[in-house]
Amino acid sequence: MLHAEIEIGSFLKVRRAALDPAELGLPDGVNRRRVRGLRREEVAQLAGISVDYYTRIEQGRAPAISDSVLDAIARALRLSDGEMTYLHNVAAPRRRPADCAAAPDSDGGPCTVARQTVRPEIQRLLDAMEATVPAMVLGRGLDILAWNALGGRISFDLPALAPDRRNTALLVFLDPAARALHADWEAKAVEVVGNLRAESGRHPEDPRICEVVNELLARSRDFRRIWETQSVSECLCGTKSLLHPRVGELVLTFESFRLSADPDQALVTYTAERGSKTEGRLRELGALALGDPVLSA
């Protein structure tokens, strides 16, 4: 499990270490600074709370922290909107996921939540777009739950993968093909970690998210390096460049849409600029036989 007391402590320490005291108008003080960033007492002063209380918050020993205190700490640490949301999520009282409350393990251990599924109506929507728009649905922990035919052709061979391996983070960090595929693999890796950490803040006790994070921490040195930066950033739209081995470079704009009836799922679509080389290459890709190998993520 991603224990809240560990997560909030690590997050706050990294965030205060990232700030420059001089830029905030803070003096060096009587004792020379031995570490980067702000001291605990300086964060407490900027947030308008006692040093003891801030220390207990950072050590995970302060239950039921009010929203106003969290907002004050967020302002003191100059957190972004995404980071502020993450702080509120990991500081909230821990509750079992709704699915767990109904079906705990018989031995009293942590429950196992069934893999998410996509409603037939959403699959029909995906299939309706497949001639021109690659699309897929992502679930908790960045699991790839469904896709259309064209979406599968710009992705790994998803049908050939075991269901528990159809996960964006696992593919980006553990499949060697991903590095050849992304024109800027490091940027893609940072994006994925930022999204996964945001997911872990929303669902800190979700077994699937914990499984993915723990596997990556154990198997990927690059994932550990980026995860330890405490980066939180949900990338919901933008442009990506894929070096597809069959049709060449694809420059695609992507958009993510939260499904109102399934808020833990997001529909992700990819489009090309009209008249561009990528538009033509997507048509070429769509014409390939379904059995042809595909290698991108």
TrEMBL record:
Record SMART domains: HTH_XRE
Domain HTH cro/C1-type: 33-84
Domain of life: Bacteria
InterPro entries, per the entry: Cro/C1-type_HTH, Lambda_DNA-bd_dom_sf, MLTR_LBD
Annotated TM spans: none
PANTHER family on file: BLL4672 PROTEIN, BLL4672 PROTEIN-RELATED
UniProt protein name: Helix-turn-helix transcriptional regulator
Species in which this protein is naturally found: Streptomyces mooreae
